[in-house]
Amino acid sequence: MLGAVCLLVLLGYAYGCGQPAVPPQLSSRVVGGEDAVAHSWPWQISLQYSRSGSWHHTCGGTLIAPQWVLTAAHCISSSMTYRVVLGKQD
């Protein structure tokens, strides 16, 4: 019984996880798109690399814990210097 209660509590907390603060206008087409409302996707990051003294966006990623980002393996090269930018709009 205690296990079932714990499971229900966990599911209740998980239900709101990953919900954007401002719901997007969804459609079946991406063509044209629309700008995201600032801070509506707080877990979205920009992975940037340094070249010639400036930073350039290379890939997106997801903040999965305070010190952990999940991104695609092809976005990373051991010869590059990277930074993670969070909470920026453009």
UniProtKB/TrEMBL annotation:
Full protein name: CTRC protein
Gene Ontology, cellular component aspect: extracellular space
A single MF term (Gene Ontology): serine-type endopeptidase activity
Organism classification: Eukaryota, Metazoa, Chordata, Craniata, Vertebrata
Listed SUPFAM superfamilies: Trypsin-like serine proteases
Biological process according to GO: proteolysis
Domain called Peptidase S1: residue spans: 30-90
Record keywords, A-Z: Signal
InterPro entries listed in its UniProt record: Peptidase_S1_Elastase_sf, Peptidase_S1_PA, Peptidase_S1_PA_chymotrypsin, Trypsin_dom, TRYPSIN_HIS
First and last residue of the signal peptide: 1-16
Pfam families: Trypsin
